[in-house]
Amino acid sequence: MSRRTLQYVLGAVVGAVGLAMIPAAIVAGIYQEWGEMGQIFLAALLTFGIGFVAWRFGDQAELTAKEGFAIVGLAWISVVLVGTLPYILTGTLQGFTNALFESTAGFTTTGSSVIARPEDIGHGVVFWRATSQWLGGMGIIVLSVAILPLLGVGGVELARAESPGPRPDRLTPRFKETAKRLWLIYVGFTVAETLLLWVGDMTLFEAVAHSLTTLSTGGFSTTSASLGGFSAYAQWVVIVFMLLAGASFALHYRGLRNPVEYTRDAELKIYGAIIAAATLVTIIGIWGGGVGRTVRDSVFQVVSLVTTTGYATTDFNLWPGALTIMVVGLMFVGGMAGSTAGSVKTYRIGVLTRASLADIRRVIHPRGVFPVRLGGQRVPEPIVQSVQAFFLFYMFTFMTGTFVLGVFSSAIGPDLDFVSAASAVATAIGNVGPGLGALGPTETFNEVTALGKWLLSGLMIAGRLEIFPIVLLFTPELWRK
Length: 481
Fold this sequence. Notes:
Blueprint: H1 3-20, H2 22-30, H3 34-56, H4 65-82, H5 85-89, H6 96-107, H7 123-138, H8 140-147, H9 155-162, H10 175-198, H11 204-215, H12 232-245, H13 249-257, H14 260-264, H15 266-285, H16 291-306, H17 321-330, H18 346-364, E1 373-374, E2 377-378, H19 381-412, H20 418-429, H21 450-464, H22 468-473
Antiparallel strand pairs: 1-2
Helix pairs in contact: 1-3, 1-4, 2-3, 2-7, 4-6, 4-9, 6-7, 6-21, 7-11, 8-10, 10-11, 10-12, 10-13, 11-12, 12-16, 15-16, 15-17, 18-19, 19-20, 19-21, 20-21
C-alpha cells in the first residue's frame, strides 16, 4: 500500500472532522460559554491543521478493494482519536481513556456513555456529542465521497468497505452521485424531525441535538432521563424517525419517488415483522400502568433496540426475566442493510433463516436442489457464504469479547457479573448503547475498567465497520508490497 495515498485520504477525512467541530464552538458562543467556545475552536484548529498537513503532502491514486478496506479502518481510528480533543481541552472528561470511549461511542453511533448527566456539561460539548453521531451515522467516508472531489478516485472502494450490509446500493452509475443523494435524504429527514420536535416540548437546541442522534441511530440525549424526560408527542415523533433511520436509505430514495417500492421490498417486510412481533410480546410482558403508556413504552424500546438507537423511556432492567432475554436478542438484529443502524442487519437474518431451512430440506432430500430465496429472488451462493462467514465472525467476536471483558473486570475490578459483561459486549459490537445489569439504560459505563473501555471501544469500531476492515489491518499480506 502507498503510504502517501494513505496519508492523502486520512488527511482529507481528519480535516473534514476538524471543520465539523466549528458548529459546536459556535453553539457554545451562543450560550455565552466563552471558555468552552475557545477550547472547542482550538480543537477544531488542531484537527484541521493535522488533516491539512497530511493531505497536502500526500498523493492521490487509485485504490484497490484491499486498500479501501484498510484505509477505512485506519480512517475511523484516526477520527475517533481526534474526536477526543473537545472532551479533553474543555475538561469535560478526565483521562484519555474516558475521552476515547465517549468519542468512539459517538462516531460509531453506539450511545454508550461515561457522562452521567449531560445536562450538567456545556452546550458546545453536548452538541459535539450529537454531531459526532450524526457524522458517523451515514458514514464519514461516504460523506467525504459525496462532498470532497479530492476523494473521487477510489471512492467506491471506500464506500464498499464502510457501507453497512452485504454491499453498497448504487442508485446512479457514479457512486459519488449516489452518496450525495443519500446524504440529501439524511439531511432532509434530520430537518423534518427537528421541526416536528421543536413544535412540541423541546427547545430548538434539544430538537436539533435529538434529531442528529435519532437519524444516526446514535442515542445520545441532552438529559440523563433520555427521551423519558419528554412528552408522549416527542416520543412518538422519535419512534417514527427511528423507524425511518433503521430502514434502507436507498429504499427511501426509490420509495419517495414511487411509494410502491416500499411494498415490494422483502427486507422491509422482515424488518417490520420483527418489530411488530417483539412489540406484541413486550406489551403482554409489561401490561399494566395504563394502556397508552404500556403501548408507547413497548413500541419505543423495541424500535430503539432493533434500530440500535439506544434511547430509553423506561428501565428495561426491571422487566421480567424472559423479556430481558429478548432485549439481548434484539441487540443482535439491527435495521436494514443500507441504514444507519448497526448489528447483524435484517437482510442477513433473512438469508441465514432461509439458508438454514434449505439445509434442513437437503438433509431430508439429499439429491434435491434448494436455492436460497428472499422475496422471491434467488440469493447468489457467494452472498449466502459471505453472510454465513460474517455471522460466524460476529458471534466469535461476541464470545471472545465477553470472555476477555470478564477477565479484565475480575482481575482488576470492579467485577462485572456475566449478564453485565455479555450485554456490554453485545451492545458495543451491535452499536446499540445501553446494556443490562450494572450497565443498564439508567447507568453509565464508568463501572467498566480502563482496559475494558479500550476493549469495548475497539469492539464498537469493529461493529460499525462490520468486522472485516479491522481484521484486515492485522493481516500481514495487506502491508506487503
